[in-house]
Write the structure tokens for this entry.
Amino acid sequence: MLVVAAPLLEVEGDACDLGLIAQTYGNVYVAQVAMGANQQQVVRAMLEAEAWDGPSIIIAYSTCISHGIDMETSMTHQGEAVASGYWPLYRFRPSHDSHGKPLQLDSKAPNGRVEAYLASEPRFAMLRRSDPERAEALWKRSHADVEERWRYYSQMAAVERALTVDAAAAPAENTEK
């Protein structure tokens, strides 16, 4: 089991969703968690990841002093990240069931307050002070990204998907001529 404590990865200005990338493999257990938002979901994800007979990854939201956050409010801040939609909680559990829905959303729909969440972090608030126009454009984009990500995850949560037959278990093709 791999536990990663990092938000979305930035690649040339665009965010890459590590959890979504791992889900495309189909056989990887993936969870995105935040202890300050839902402790039960974190424990459930760790138990499921440990029990999964295959690769598992848990992506955990983790605040840090370099974000400019008072660490005494770290848990509350994680809850705000989840409520705003900046950090949705989910578990992706691969299944052999042909009617299985592997993606389980564990957080509610975004509350529309991603800008307020971003403003609560000095690293983002600093941009508003130094370049207000750029900050406003980026915060609008963040809001749109949060809404689109939730819409996409909601669609994915409704998809039925089963694991395919393991290549090792499938009969080998006769390659002799």
Observations:
- Strands lie at 2-4, 9-11, 14-16, 29-33, 56-60, 90-92, 103-105.
- The domain at 2-157 is CATH 3.40.50.970 (Rossmann fold).
- Helices lie at 18-23, 39-51, 74-84, 114-119, 122-130, 132-157.
